[in-house]
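Notes from the 1:1 (GR / supervisor)

We went over the backlog. Supervisor wanted to see one worked example end to end before approving the batch request, so GR pasted a single chain during the call. The sequence is below; no edits were made to it. Supervisor asked that the structure be written out right there so they could see what the output format looks like.
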Amino acid sequence: MPETVLPTEVERRLHPLSWLFVLLTQLRQFLVPLVALLLFGGRASSYQMVPALVAVVAIAALSVWRYFTYRYRIGSDSIFVRSGLFERSLRQVPFSRIHDVAVHQSLLHRIFEVAEVRLESASGDKPEARMQVLRLEEALALERLVRRRGEAASGDAPAAAGTDPGGDLLLALPTPEVVRLGLVSNRGMVIVAGAFALSWQVLPDRVASDVFADLGRRAAGYADSIGADWLARGLGIAALVLVALLLVRLLSVALALVQYHDFRLEQHGRRLTAGRGLLTRRRNSVPRRRIQAWTLQETLLHRLLGRRSLRIDTAVVEQGNEERGLAELAPIATPQACDALVEHLLPQAAWPPPAWQPLHPRAWIRLALGGCFVALLLVAAIGWRFGAWGLLGLLWIPWAAFVARQHARRAGYALDDQLVAVREGWWSRHWRFAELDKLQALQLRQSPLDRWFGMASLWLDSAGTGALAPPLRMRYLPEDEARALLARIGGAVARRRLRW
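Structure output shown during the call:
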């Protein structure tokens, strides 16, 4: 369905089944309490179900009401959304202010051939418009229309209407790469922790504690059955831990296959679009100029597999645990592929930097002080319980010094006329960088210890920093060098126009 068939200046309704999807979305929030009420409510559950059924009927009525009162209209430079009956609302969303166009399809959406469209901007903690739901052809046509008119409004050369919607493929993840992504991620551990917390909230008193206590007794019994000496028991416990870690890692792989199946990153003119998902298909789109900062991540498992991940920050605001905006350009890829993506999307900047500037010569001492403090706490805690054995906590000091030297040796920064970049980490490494045109504020920080060592840190702020993104900071530089950098970067930022 080309975007030209979407009539302009004509109000359009949602799909006739939109009320059903709104109802299911609302009921999902009450699913766990309702199930717990049915299973563990006892005799009183029949009386408690009456208000629950009344609430379900009320939610269903509101869902149908929303279908009859929700309209959207495509204007020459904006989308207008009208909703409400008693309290009416007319919202105008200019095409030039739309940062992200998200098209979501769950398994139920795909059965009915519909999709949910979300128009995101940087103005609040929720989407500017949430069209739940449209016919799939209409949703994709609306996505292309917003992309084309947004490019025209920003001064870019838009693609002609009705042309082939396919873009230039920048990255695709085959199934083996998705399996590697599951191996390096901790999504399985997050699910296990969530299930553990949910069991304590939902199950009746002492049921959850009895279940976990029984599992502990079984594990201890298995360790005792291996042998009576401490070495055999230790090996048995280690085997149980390894089996548990293996199961969690397999769960992470399964989740990665469901979430990142058929991942494709494409470029449509000045806009990047990423689609993924096995059961629920997600398609997010964002203009390249909306990218505020970049993060390359490399954990130990990444290095063992020869992979990295590339994330971006946009000006879209996160809300709770709801995934919003395009954040992952390369969930997993080779270092060469990640660098090639950065070079392609930032052709005016030099990446990777030709040289990295080091930290203060005594930065490793500053980094090691935290580990020394932890060692003293270990000495006090172990010594209070086991006496002279507490001195073993001092063994943490050489390890802390070794880790600090490795961190200081690898850390550094790079600065040119277009880009500022920092790198940090040893066990888990990351590279954080941003264009000077995207910086919004600078801050020089000095703690009492920093002043004593003659060093300072420079923190750089950009819009849309994600919760998972490390801060953009130059830590533990010589004080004179940090102040010179503050003047240089601050002067460059003050002279340049902010590219939002």
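Supervisor's comment: The first helix runs from residue 18 to 28.
Batch request approved.
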